[in-house]
Amino acid sequence: MVKRGMVAVMQKLEAQSWVAQHEWKQLYGTDSKHHQHLETRWKTLYMVLKACGYDPDHDLRNQMLHQDIKGRGLALT
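The structure assignment produced for this chain is given below.
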């Protein structure tokens, strides 16, 4: 089933930011300013979801974590 609407978008953004900060932490540690920015972004999206009464989609997080970078739907900059 495909989720639609604002909740699905917020859950996808939260999952992407969780994966980004998780992978950065594994590769480079937590001592950089970039990691702090990634973690702040993830915590902000997480708290917005929780404040609206929704939970993060843990299955989506795990699915994204196990996909290669091209399969995540991230725009290349």
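Interim note for the steering committee: The longest helix spans residues 6-28. The radius of gyration is 13 Å.
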